[in-house]
Design a protein that fits this description.
4-stranded antiparallel β-sheet, single chain, about 20% strand, elongated, alpha+beta
């Protein structure tokens, strides 16, 4: 049996390594992208086009649901006027594209346009949003259809990644759900594969008295966690809507792949709860088993039992002679049902995780993610079961043969834990390469920093696991073998008992430390799900032609004012038009400043053409002012724009921008 178990584990490890290196040679690892982010648009974000387009196309890195929408606004007299018509649509031919139409494009004015989009990822049900801007007819930036699309322009990552109440609750429940699934898998594997020998039946009976409640706790945590996760996704979508629309929120269940998989996951969890209740009721019905033929015992077992009887005859006799019998249902069938349920529930989590958020999901990526979840449960969940169920059960001093039982269980458990750890490391390496395409992102991106912490903790937990299984366990086994050599009435026996107790405490501390590291690793997993992998921008070709550089005037400037970076843009930069002045302010960390009061004063530099004034408060995050063509910018030449920025509790900042108007 032991040889077959090692053979099975060796084959599993070999297949994992071959699959990994084979996928690296044949298929490059997919870029894992959680949620749905903009990676391109037509017109290009920040570009200038010759005429108002009939449609605006937005391209995402992942399939989006039909719930997604986009609204197009024209900036007129400093106000946003919606010019989109009807609902946005996701074409059946490309589920990663969102199309919004502009009503009567031939009658729309030249100038600046904004596209405010909201997307619900089809696979994980998370909501993202942002703004795309383009100019028609003239450009104050001089950009000639050049792509400036990036994470901080079209995708509002500052708000999406903000750790507000809903985000913190989402991370916490993601962590609880993942921890419950991990521990449940470890519990099932240990009880179905390790505690099946005749020598461990009494231990199994006592362990199941504790694990029954733990199984219920894990399944209830999974059920409640999934319900709360769905509610939090609805809350995130509701935050982007102008008014509460409950029917639209409920469509997350029916109009997304996440909703359908969520229903299947809830159903599987309920089936597992029913099966747990039925199997426990059958197990509590005692069945008398005929007394088998006595098996020869070793000198170690004989001496251990004799010494234990001398210490506590009644309890030892009860423990030795009491036999527990499995329920009427064959154990192999129970094992098959439990493992099938655990595998299917885990697969539903895989299908809604970040690994399937790619252009063409690879089967190898899904398989590796599934193996990652399962091995995580076997390794970390197995150590948690060892630390909090088995070791407290077998650490009692009143039955000394518990040490022999413990060493026997550890010998059976070691290959399983090592296999889970190895598969976890291999699959984690594959998924890390799929998530990070630039090593610098391990420092600069919040997802990368979380991944780096997870990698370091995983390596530490792996080294500690090896120490516990290959240094502490052999030491405990050696001490247990030497214990029966010394009779109970000699002081040397008490010394060896003390050494065994110390080794057991060291083993328990190591197991609890691995379990604690596992909890932090799972918290990193929840944080990674929230932040999502960094956006990978492919080269996208656009159809709309841009204007030539000769048709544009550069009327945009960026300056440093104190600890602020201020960008001022004037549109259209030609006399005879109303002019729009756009001011964008960021702090020294690149974050938009939205709580400032901005005062603008305009006048011509060479002659007094009269001052124009505008006062702006609380941009979102853009401060916009419109000047009538008779009040300012009425003559070609050099104009001064004095900018004053006042923040609460801060010193007023002042600077003057100079722009040139053409005829």
């Amino acid at each position: 049996m032991q040889q077959r178990r090692w053979l099975f584990i060796s084959i599993a490890l070999l297949l994992s390594f071959l699959a990994y290196f084979g996928s690296m040679l044949v298929i490059p690892p997919p870029t894992a992208q959680a949620h749905a982010y903009v990676i391109g648009s037509d017109p290009v974000d920040g570009s200038t086009v010759g005429k108002v387009p009939g449609e605006v196309h937005i391209f995402f890195n992942a399939p989006i649901s039909s719930i997604s929408n986009a609204h197009i606004y024209s900036i007129q007299h400093g106000n946003l006027v919606e010019v989109s018509t009807g609902a946005s649509r996701v074409p059946a031919s490309n589920p990663q594209e969102l199309i919004a139409s502009i009503k009567t494009p031939d009658t729309q004015p030249e100038g600046s346009y904004e596209v405010m989009w909201t997307a619900v990822a089809n696979n994980d049900g998370n909501t993202t949003y942002g703004i795309i801007g383009f100019d028609v007819g003239f450009s104050g930036t001089g950009v000639d259809g050049t792509t400036v699309l990036g994470p901080t322009s079209s995708n509002n990552l500052e708000s999406i990644h903000k750790l507000d109440t809903a985000a913190i609750l989402s991370i916490v429940w993601e962590w609880i759900t993942t921890a419950a699934l991990t521990f449940w898998i470890g519990l099932l594997v240990v009880e179905q594969f390790i505690l099946t020998d005749k020598r461990t039946l009494s231990v199994l009976a006592q362990a199941r008295k504790r694990s029954y409640a733990l199984e219920w706790m894990c399944l209830l945590a999974l059920l409640c966690g999934e319900i709360i996760a769905l509610i939090l996704r609805m809350v995130r979508l509701a935050q982007t809507l102008p008014a509460l629309n409950i029917p639209l929120l409920i469509t997350i269940i029916s109009d997304t792949m996440y909703g359908l998989i969520w229903i299947l996951r809830i159903l599987l969890i309920v089936i597992a709860m029913v099966f747990l209740y039925v199997s426990h009721r059958r197990r509590t019905t005692p069945v008398v088993e005929p007394e088998p033929e006595p098996e020869p015992i070793t000198n170690f077992e004989r001496l251990s039992t004799q010494d234990a009887v001398a210490v506590s005859p009644s309890k030892t006799q009860e423990a030795v002679e009491k036999r527990t019998v499995e329920p009427a249902m064959p154990p192999r069938r129970q094992t098959a049902i439990w493992l099938t349920l655990a595998g299917l529930i885990t697969l539903t989590f895989v299908l809604t995780s970040s690994i399937v958020q790619v252009l063409n999901p690879f089967v190898s990526a899904i398989v590796f993610d599934w193996l990652h979840w399962l091995s995580q449960g076997i390794w970390l969940g197995g150590f948690a079961y060892l630390a909090y169920v088995l070791l407290p059960l077998l650490s009692g001093a009143e039955l000394e043969y518990n040490t022999e039982t413990l060493t026997f269980l550890l010998r059976r458990l070691t290959p399983l834990l090592i296999a889970g750890m190895a598969i976890q490391l291999v699959s984690g390496l594959f998924l890390s390469e799929a998530s990070i395409h630039d090593p610098q992102q391990l420092i600069t991106d919040p997802f990368g920093r979380t991944l780096l912490v997870q990698i370091l903790l995983t390596l530490f937990a792996a080294l500690l696991s090896i120490y516990a299984l290959y240094i502490i366990r052999p030491k405990l086994t050696h001490q247990a073998l030497l214990l029966p050599v010394v009779k109970a009435d000699l002081p040397a026996r008490r010394t060896r008992q003390s050494e065994i107790s110390g080794t057991q405490r060291l083993l328990k501390l190591s197991a609890k430390t691995v379990a604690f590291c596992g909890a932090i690793i799972l918290l990193c997993f929840a944080l990674k799900s929230f932040f999502a992998p960094p956006i990978d921008f492919p080269n996208v070709k656009y159809n709309n032609p841009g204007l030539t550089q000769g048709n544009t005037t550069i009327n945009a400037q960026t300056r440093q004012m104190g600890d602020l970076t201020v960008t001022l843009q004037v549109l259209p930069g030609r006399i005879g038009y109303e002019h729009t002045v756009i001011v964008m302010i960021t702090d020294n960390k690149g974050r938009p400043v939205t709580n400032a009061q901005v005062n603008l004063t305009t006048n011509m530099q060479l002659m007094d053409m009269g001052e124009g004034h505008a006062s702006l408060q609380q941009g979102n995050p853009v401060y916009i002012a419109t000047f009538d063509k008779r009040a300012a910018f009425s003559m070609a030449g050099l104009w001064n724009i004095k900018v004053e920025i006042q923040r609460a509790g801060q010193k007023k900042l002042t600077d003057t921008f100079r722009i040139t108007l053409t005829a």
